[in-house]
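Input (structure):
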């Protein structure tokens, strides 16, 4: 029980909520597009069934992601992907990004479209939540994951417009969220088992437990990842639209 009161647990909870707010809006757009041709009486059912199927699928994906992240080099790969995902958040999106989502006037066809599209788009969410959950320690990773997905349900189903308005009004939310993904990437990569021989760590607290990276190095890599995402995002955005580059 004391683990649920630890700062690490609630830090991971906060990170998962932020990830869902940032990365759940896209899924809300997909659901809206896939269900837009359904009759009014079936639209709510399509949204709920599609979301339920997508959430179950994501639980399975994150379970495998947490397991796979224990293998050497996969935290490095996952961290690199998170760095790119965070950077992409800071690059202006094209207007036709969701143009390939097909709507259907049949309930189960729309549900299938939602689940398939969510599967394709969920890589960022899966890796980010798995990385955040690892920060809370082994025994509570799956409860954290389930909590994060429960939080994502109202965000995905009802919160898309609110999220979009919030991000439009306060662009700093996107910047801070992108830097959070960079932070998770940095702390994830430095904990990769393949680097254990070179990374200074503290002895295991209990026999059989894994050693932990020195706190100063852990937080330093997190800060480095956050700053790297910010720098890359601004650089790519400036290259994509040079006229928006601020003077001086």
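Output (sequence):
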């Amino acid at each position: 029980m004391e683990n649920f009161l630890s700062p690490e647990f609630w830090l991971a909870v906060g990170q998962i909520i932020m990830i869902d707010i940032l990365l759940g809006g896209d899924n809300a757009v997909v659901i809206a597009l896939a269900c837009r041709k359904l009759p009014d009486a079936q639209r709510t059912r399509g949204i709920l069934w599609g979301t339920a199927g997508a959430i179950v699928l994501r639980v399975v994906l994150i379970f495998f992601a947490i397991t796979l992240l224990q293998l050497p080099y996969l935290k490095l790969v996952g961290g690199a992907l998170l760095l790119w995902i965070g950077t992409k958040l800071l690059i202006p999106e094209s207007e036709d990004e969701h143009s390939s989502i097909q709507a259907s006037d049949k309930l189960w066809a729309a549900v299938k479209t939602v689940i398939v599209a969510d599967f394709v788009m969920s890589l960022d969410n899966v890796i980010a939540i798995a990385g955040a959950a690892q920060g809370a320690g082994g025994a509570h990773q799956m409860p954290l994951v389930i909590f994060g997905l429960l939080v994502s349900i109202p965000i995905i189903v009802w919160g898309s417009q609110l999220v979009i308005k919030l991000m439009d009004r306060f662009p700093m939310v996107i910047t801070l969220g992108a830097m959070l993904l960079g932070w998770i990437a940095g702390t994830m990569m430095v904990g990769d088992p393949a680097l254990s021989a070179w990374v200074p760590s503290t002895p295991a607290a209990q026999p059989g437990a894994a050693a932990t990276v020195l706190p100063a190095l852990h937080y330093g890599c997190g800060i480095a990842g956050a700053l790297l995402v910010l720098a890359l995002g601004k650089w790519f955005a400036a290259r994509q639209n040079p006229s928006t580059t601020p003077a001086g």
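Notes: Residues 2-196+211-237 form one domain. The first helix runs from residue 7 to 35.
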